[in-house]
Description:
Elements: H1 4-25, E1 50-51, H2 52-69, H3 72-89, E2 100-101, E3 107-109, E4 112-113, H4 114-131, H5 134-150, E5 162-163, E6 184-185, H6 186-202, H7 206-223, E7 224-225, E8 230-231, E9 234-235, E10 245-247, H8 248-265, H9 268-289, E11 299-301, E12 306-308, E13 311-312, H10 313-330, H11 333-350, E14 361-362, H12 382-397
Antiparallel strand pairs: 1-2, 2-3, 4-5, 6-9, 7-8, 10-11, 11-12, 13-14
Amino acid sequence: MGNNQQLITELHQELTSILDFWSSHAVDDEFGGFAGEVDTRGKKVPGADKGLVLNARILWSFSLAYNFLKKEEYLQLAHRAYNYLTSHFWDKENGGLVWAVDYKGSVSNSRKQIYGQGFGIYGLAEYFKATGKQESLDFAIKLFDLIEQHSHDSVHGGYLEALSADWQSLDDMRLSAKDANSPKSMNTHLHILEPYSNLFRVWKNDKLKDRMKSLIRVFLDKILNNQTGHLHLFFDIDWMVQSNMISYGHDIEGAWLINEAAELVGDSDLLRESQQKTLKMVEAVMNEGMADDNSLLYEYDFDEGKMHTDRHWWVQGEAMVGLLDAYGHSGNEHFYKMFLKIWQYIKEHVIDHENGGWFGLIGEDGKPLPNEVKVGFWKCPYHNTRALIESIERIKRLPEAN
């Protein structure tokens, strides 16, 4: 299987490189917090809105980086992210986190996107782990209670996509312009399961544990197409499927996040079922979504009969973890070999060795698409820092590393 120690060293070096890029390019010294956008060469774009997802993920990433590497500078950036999130994004009147603020920190979009509340929990729980700051855990628990109170569907199960500033229903619930206007989505459910898992690590609450089990069941019974091994993307209120696409990145990310949650709740039967079903998901992704250059393609649209072949940076990162997870519980070396190939692709095509950070989109020719931002509303340090840390920890657990 090659030299695991050399591989771990490589992953560590890239992790430090990514964190250095964000430390040196993303801090907004003029208006506080972090820049809303940084262009492909690493220059801040003036006047860009600051998104909730970006800021909550920065909080999570630097908290995790501190927990993993124990470097004081990462803790200082986590403090900065926490202070900005709680003072500018927290809705003091209605509770919860607003979707966006302008470059000066005033609210520019007050809606309550449940996906965003989830990332708030994710970051706040990790920051609590880093600092032991009770206020941070209190904020995370408040968000959990607000999601459960306003978004949970007690009739059909699962969670509604979005609500207004004061938690009333909305006509347009879309997460972004490219999404379907459906009341439920795979993406939001995945990013509620993931923060609930992180919250459960620091807050062993029975209701939270029950909700995690229910969410795992929603994935295995409603969201996953057990025939094809792919996740459906959009749904009506009663789980009628409203999409006809495959998202390979979400499939492979979902596979390991479902297993992580099942392991945390400690139900061995549920874990066994999750691992069996997610293994089929990873196999389907590898069989259908892998390109000849060892990258993972983006998505397939059945309505168009078309594969979308852009290589998204985050999809390659999630594939690293999904493949190591599948290898870890199946023992099938094919998954480990594919992991090494994807890591090689990332080194050659995704990492910007000149300006730092990761390119957003790579074309079929292996070259980055121009004008893709390095920091943005959706371009955060979370997929790649997580992929590297998860990979290091999982490789260390392999018998060959001992």
